[in-house]
């Protein structure tokens, strides 16, 4: 679909105002809907000077830590292929480090307590060495593994090494071959190629610029090396929204964007967590996934609404001045307000075979309503108390999808005539009347009944 011209003008104004407010040389952004780039724009000049080269959506910028999401997908593909388990200790696959018993899942979710940065000079501004040099500098754990969230760039350098050793080639070769090429992301590289923006710092008290260094980060490259364009990063946003083109199983992607480790900040509500390589945001009950990125001279943001699939990407060539993930959220908000996603009409496409399961059930004296919604059986209201959706799992079998009963089995127990007697849900009995004495209630029902 094409975006309305008035909406495009409004979005452009938002970019232009943010570029001026943040005093950044250039800013490029895009919006994704239904797996396609819906809108893309750029403001400013790549060198930050009047009359300079205008930025455009095909200008390359460094994506920084969004690189970690690609490394994470490469790791999960190994898991899905049976090559590793997320509960494996890192040293089982890459021996000879001081990471001890940190698991692969803990590294992916920043829950391993591994130190944030290297022990050497500021790695983002100095050429990087090899893996042996990195781990030879006494990589340490700051916290007990599994205790808390502690963001670690070093941890993703380790995961990049794991991917490389598993495949016998450089980590980026794996990412290029298995992810970028199948997804058509031809403008994503490890170093600037063709049309690219230079990394710049803007003086905080004067309108002058300082070029930032550009180099190969070596063993630290998996933490933030990749360069990309709006078009390519928009394709990755569509991937995050579920359009994986067969590169990753849907269930695996869902696992990656679940909150695994909460990013707890004293005095602040819990709104941010990390999944397996992805950041996850909870904004007034609505879930978003993606990642932010920053390197000297560059800022980047990727954010996807997991309910609608709409996504936003932002790329900036400045060390500071703009909060790209927050700007991505604003762009998504404008899109939702000015060009809401079309509402699909309701159709009677339900399954009449489950009608004998819907209606009122009782867990003891507590009333619960069962509904058939699409392909799911829903008990109560998901997100409230123990409300949950259930997916069919064989004849008269169901499995919980969310809430308290996620992963738990539900079995329909029938009478001799085939009518439902009760529901056996994780050992609990749901009966048509409160404590139905005919429904095999554990502990029995008092002989005198209700009185």
Automatic annotation (TrEMBL):
Please state the span of the N-terminal signal peptide per the UniProt entry. none
Q: Does the keyword Electron transport apply?
A: no
Q: What SUPFAM superfamilies does its record include?
A: beta-lactamase/transpeptidase-like (SSF56601)
Keyword Hydrolase included in the entry's annotation = yes
| Top-rank taxon, per record | Bacteria
The UniProt GO MF terms for this protein read:
hydrolase activity
* Beta-lactamase-related domain ranges (all copies): 17-335
Question: Which keywords are on file for this protein?
Answer: Hydrolase
Question: Do you know which Pfam families this protein is assigned to?
Answer: Beta-lactamase, DUF7586
Outline the extent of the DUF7586 domain.
351-432
Protein's UniProt name = Serine hydrolase domain-containing protein
Q: Which organism is it from?
A: Terrabacter aeriphilus
């Amino acid at each position: 679909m094409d975006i309305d011209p008035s909406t495009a003008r409004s979005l452009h104004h938002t970019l232009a105002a943010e570029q001026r407010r943040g005093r950044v040389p250039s800013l490029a952004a895009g919006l994704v809907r239904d797996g396609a780039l819906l809108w893309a724009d750029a403001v400013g000049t790549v060198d930050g000077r009047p009359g300079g080269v205008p930025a455009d959506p095909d200008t390359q910028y460094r994506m920084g830590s969004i690189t970690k999401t690609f490394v994470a997908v490469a790791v999960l593909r190994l898991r899905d292929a049976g090559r590793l388990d997320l509960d494996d200790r890192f040293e089982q696959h890459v021996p000879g480090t001081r990471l001890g018993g940190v698991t692969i899942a803990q590294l992916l979710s920043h829950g391993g307590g591994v130190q944030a940065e290297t022990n050497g000079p500021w790695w983002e501004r100095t050429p990087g060495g090899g893996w042996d040099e990195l781990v030879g500098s006494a990589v340490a754990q700051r916290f007990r593994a599994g205790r808390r969230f502690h963001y670690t760039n070093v941890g993703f350098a380790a995961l990049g090494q794991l991917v490389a050793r598993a495949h016998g080639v450089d980590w980026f070769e794996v990412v290029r071959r298995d992810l970028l090429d199948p997804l058509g992301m031809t403008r994503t590289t490890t170093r600037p190629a063709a049309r690219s923006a230079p990394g710049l710092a803007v003086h905080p008290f004067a309108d002058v610029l300082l070029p930032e260094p550009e180099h190969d980060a070596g063993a630290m490259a998996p933490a933030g090396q990749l360069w990309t364009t709006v078009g390519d990063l928009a394709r990755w946003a569509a991937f995050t929204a579920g359009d994986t083109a067969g590169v990753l199983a849907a269930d695996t992607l869902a696992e990656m964007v679940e909150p695994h480790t909460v990013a707890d900040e004293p005095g602040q509500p819990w709104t941010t967590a990390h999944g397996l390589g992805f950041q996850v945001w909870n904004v007034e009950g609505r879930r978003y996934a993606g990642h932010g990125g920053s390197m000297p001279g560059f800022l980047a943001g990727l954010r996807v609404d997991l309910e609608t699939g709409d996504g936003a990407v932002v790329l900036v060539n400045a060390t500071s001045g703009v909060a790209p993930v927050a700007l991505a959220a604003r762009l998504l908000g404008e899109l939702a307000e000015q060009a809401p996603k079309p509402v699909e009409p309701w159709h009677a496409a339900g399954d009449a075979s489950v009608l004998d399961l819907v209606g009122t059930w009782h867990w003891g004296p507590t009333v619960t309503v069962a509904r058939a919604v699409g392909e799911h059986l829903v008990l109560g209201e998901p997100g409230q108390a123990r409300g949950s959706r259930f997916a069919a799992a064989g004849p008269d079998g169901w499995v919980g999808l969310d809430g308290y009963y996620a992963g738990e089995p539900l079995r329909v127990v029938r009478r001799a005539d085939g009518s439902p007697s009760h529901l056996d849900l994780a050992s609990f009995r749901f009966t048509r009347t409160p404590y139905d004495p005919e429904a095999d209630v554990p502990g029995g029902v008092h002989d005198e009944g209700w009185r």
